[in-house]
Amino acid sequence: MPKSKATTQKAVESPAREEVSLLDKLKLVVKDYLDRKVDEIQLRKTAEEVDEASQQYKTIPISSLSLEEVVKVLKLEDDDKDSELKHISPVQLPPHLVETLALIKRASGSSPPTEASIRWVIDALLLHAHSIASSHVPYAQPINVQTERLYKHGPVRLNHRKVMLSARLDYGLWYGDNEAVCLNVLVVEAKKTDLGAGVAQALGYMGCIHRERKKLTKRDCTVYGMASDGVGFTFLKISHDSKWSGYMVGEHPPKFELPLGILVHILRQAAIMSPTHSKESSAQSHTQEGSDGIDQVLTTVDEAIEMEQ
Questions:
Q1: Domain ranges across the chain
Q2: Is cis: bond before 61, omega within 30 of 0?
Q3: Distance CA 145, CA 101 (A)
Q4: pLDDT in tens, 14-36
Q5: What is the pTM of this model?
Q6: Less CB within 10 Å around the terminal CB: N or C of the chain?
Q7: Where is there biased composition of kind Polar residues (predicted)?
């Protein structure tokens, strides 16, 4: 679909800001309808969504939901056959990353891990993965990273009532200029003691993004995520057809070659899936794109990374 603002573009901080967001969304879809970029069905659907979103609902933090509740509320289906994340090769750590991780280890000493020290590790891995992936996909749109991003989604039905879900993403990555439309990439939730709770939280955030992209009829609504306690890394995927899968890696003492490799893969996928010739084309035009170009780029990236190691 043509670029438009989602209702949940930013966390609502006041009723006035929510009204502006809803009004903008309605104005854009009317303009698209007049320009014959969307049909009457899409116009009516958007009008209904705006009307629904304008009502006041209780806000529930995603962090309060269990994994089972997340799966049910966001209508996800478990997929134990998706092995994409299980067949990714480790990536040799760049020298600067090795030095950074050594500094983190010395600074932390024998102290128990905190969310701050976990963030140091994730920051280092994410920044180097971003650098590796970006340097080998020159024709894709840039991948942007933001921390502590507020997000709202809904309404959804929880325990027989409609509620809004709220989230504060530790990290959010998106392609292009409009994060609300293009946030399809990766969310990361750092947890200090309970990796299981981090997995539920990360999957909940991903599910909200996935559902928003479904509303906007994006070409590919796949979303990737990761939850980590600094030692164990659980990588998550929600496929375009709303099936989710997870893959946990980690050992003690921690080794980071495989987590780095999976992060590079995720960022490459995000960059390659993004439209390269326009900020956001229609779903129809994306559907007409072939997969040969994507396969070729992936092969080129793999070869380039191998040459560097």
A1: 1-56, 62-308
A2: no
A3: 20
A4: 333 444 466 777 788 888 888 88
A5: 0.71
A6: C
A7: 281-290
